[in-house]
Every structure is written in structure tokens, then in C-alpha cells.
């Protein structure tokens, strides 16, 4: 079932990418990144069946990093919201040339 | 050759995951999107268990669906963004076109990779993980490399979590009136 798992992982990753590119709500974009991380985890787990259990260890690390990233990222979103009263990325364009 | 019941369940959960992911990116309300994402994660947890990764499946439910998504919902509630109908959320025509093209290119690349075969020197004997599972059970299979070969990475991860906690507190704190 490795080929099927990798195909599913590809589809989920693509859906996540499309979400990042089309949505403008910072929180939803962040959730799309989580979906992409999940897709990568799926391919790690699928390949760990063939290449040894190291893939599963990596998934544990990816989950830890995702948790840390969620905590810091959401804190950043909250502090942006305090300054701008919005999380719509169209209105947050201070660095735009 | 996996039996019919296994294959049926595999495709069932795969289709649930894809359908939920599509609903997730198309919902306007962030709360509905978050709940569909939780659905994707549950389907993925089922797939992990079917792929001989029992511990990862349980951790997926506890950490991802339980902890991370609750934090997301907390933030959505805390920010009080207003009615989803009034927020224009999706990019314009060009943004969608670019996203569609990038998506097609990505899917073509990864499908090509999924079809290619790995060098034989990397491939382990089949059912290696299943044998490990029988010998060491679900926790021992993952604990042995995690606390042996990857002990240093494990300890560094704890440092990362500490930094993330401090960073979240510093960023989320309200500035004291000076």
C-alpha cells in the first residue's frame, strides 16, 4: 500500500499548498501549513514500512516541531491582531515595497 | 497481498481524508475549517494504525487533533473576527489560477516520484517493521531508536520546546504601560 499512501500524501500536500496560496486569513493559512506537515508525516510512515522504523521516529520529531510552531505562530498572530485589528494578510503589508 | 477488508478500509479512510481536506480549504468560517481539519487528522490516524505505526496514530490523535487544534480554536475564539460572510477571504482570479498551476505541477512531480523505485541498497527485507512490532510491541519499536540512536536529537527537541514556551509567553504578553 506504499504507492497509494504516497499518492494520498501528494494530494493532501497539494490541497494544503493551494490553501496557502488562495486564502487570506492568517489563521487558515497556518492550518493549511499543518495539513502539509500531516501529508509529509503520512509519507514518512508509509516509507517506514519499507526502510525501517526511523521514519516513525522522524514523525514524532515533526509533531514536536509542529506543536512548538503552532504556539509561537499563534502568539505572533495575536500580537499582530493587537496592532492592526485584523488577521487578513491583505491589510498587513508593512514590508511591501 | 493485503486482504480485501484491509484495502477497502484503506481506500475508505483515504477518501475521507481527501474529501475533508477539500472541504477544509473551501470553508469561509475558520471554525468550520478547523473542524474539517480535525476530521482529516482522525482519518490519517486510522491510516497510520493500518500502516503498522500504532504509537504514531495515537500521538496523532492526542497531540494534533487534541492539543494543536484546540489551540487554533482558542485563538479563533479569542480574536473575535466577526461574521465570516463579511470577511473577503479568498484571493482573486490570478491568485487562484497561480495556485491551481502550482498544485498541478506539484502533484505531477510527486506522482512521478511515487512511481519510481528506490535503490535496492536502501530497501530492507519486507515486513521488517511488522517483525519488530511482534518482538518489541508498539511502544518498544519506536522507543528503542528514539532513546538510543536519536537521543541527542530528542534532548535538543526538549530545548526547542522550552524556547517555544518562552517565546509564546513573551509574544502573547500585553505590553505594560510605560
Write the layout of secondary structure elements.
The complex is a heterodimer of chains A (97) and B (178).
Chain A: H1 2-22, H2 26-51, H3 54-84
Chain B: H1 4-26, H2 30-50, H3 54-79, H4 93-115, H5 128-147, H6 151-172
Helix pairs in contact in B: 1-2, 2-3
Characteristics:
heterodimer, A: 97 residues, mainly alpha, Helix Hairpins, 0% strand, B: 178 residues, Four Helix Bundle (Hemerythrin (Met), subunit A), 6 helices
Task: Give structural notes.
The complex is a heterodimer of chains A (97) and B (178). With 97 residues, chain A is mainly alpha-helical. Chain A has helices at residues 2-22, 26-51, 54-84. Chain A has a single domain, classed as Helix Hairpins (Orthogonal Bundle), CATH 1.10.287. Chain A is built from three helices and no strands. In chain A, helix 1 (2-22) runs antiparallel to helix 2 and helix 2 runs antiparallel to helix 3 (54-84). Chain A is elongated and about 50 Å long. The mean pLDDT of chain A is 87. Chain B is mostly helical. Chain B contains six helices and no strands. Chain B has helices at 4-26, 30-50, 54-79, 93-115, 128-147, 151-172. The chains are: A mainly alpha (97), B mainly alpha (178). Chains A and B meet through helix 1, helix 2 and helix 3 of A and helix 1, helix 2, helix 3, helix 4 and helix 5 of B.
Q: What is the approximate shape of chain A? A: elongated
Cα radius of gyration of chain B in angstroms: 21 Å
Shape of chain B: globular
Quickly give the CATH architecture of the largest domain in chain B.
Up-down Bundle
Pick out the low-confidence regions of chain A: none
Question: What is the overall number of helices of chain B?
Answer: 6
Helical amount among residues of chain B, as a percent range? over 70%
Would you identify the CATH H-level superfamily of the largest domain in chain B? NADH-ubiquinone/plastoquinone oxidoreductase chain 6, subunit NuoJ
Helix and strand sequence of chain B: HHHHHH
| Multimer state | heterodimer
CATH topology description of the largest domain in chain B: Four Helix Bundle (Hemerythrin (Met), subunit A)
Distance between the termini of chain B: 70 Å
Amino acid at each position: 500500500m506504499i504507492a497509494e499512501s504516497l499518492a494520498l500524501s501528494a494530494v493532501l500536500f497539494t490541497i494544503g499548498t493551494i490553501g496557502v496560496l488562495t486564502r487570506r486569513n492568517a489563521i487558515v493559512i497556518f492550518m493549511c501549513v499543518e495539513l502539509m506537515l500531516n501529508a509529509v508525516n503520512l509519507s514518512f510512515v508509509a516509507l517506514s514500512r519499507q526502510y525501517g522504523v526511523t521514519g516513525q521516529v522522524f514523525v514524532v520529531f515533526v509533531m514536536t516541531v509542529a506543536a512548538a510552531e503552532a504556539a509561537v505562530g499563534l502568539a505572533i498572530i495575536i500580537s499582530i491582531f493587537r496592532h492592526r485589528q485584523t488577521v487578513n494578510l491583505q491589510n498587513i503589508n508593512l514590508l511591501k515595497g | 497481498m493485503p486482504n480485501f477488508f484491509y484495502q477497502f478500509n484503506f481506500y475508505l479512510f483515504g477518501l475521507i481524508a481527501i474529501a475533508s481536506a477539500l472541504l477544509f480549504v473551501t470553508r469561509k468560517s475558520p471554525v468550520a475549517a478547523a473542524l474539517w481539519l480535525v476530521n482529516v487528522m482522525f482519518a490519517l490516524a486510522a491510516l497510520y494504525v493500518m500502516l503498522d505505526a500504532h504509537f504514531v496514530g495515537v500521538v496523532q490523535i492526542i497531540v494534533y487533533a487534541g492539543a494543536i487544534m484546540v489551540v487554533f480554536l482558542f485563538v479563533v475564539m479569542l480574536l473575535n473576527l466577526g461574521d465570516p460572510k463579511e470577511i473577503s477571504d479568498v484571493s482573486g482570479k490570478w491568485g487562484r489560477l497561480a495556485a491551481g498551476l502550482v498544485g498541478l505541477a506539484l502533484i505531477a512531480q510527486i506522482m512521478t516520484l511515487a512511481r519510481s523505485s528506490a535503490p535496492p541498497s536502501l530497501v530492507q527485507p519486507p515486513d521488517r517493521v511488522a517483525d519488530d512490532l511482534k518482538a518489541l510491541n508498539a511502544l518498544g519499536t519506536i522507543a528503542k531508536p528514539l532513546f538510543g540512536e536519536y537521543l541527542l536529537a530528542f534532548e535538543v527537541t526538549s530545548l526547542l520546546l522550552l524556547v517555544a514556551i518562552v517565546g509564546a509567553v513573551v509574544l502573547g504578553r500585553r505590553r505594560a504601560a510605560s
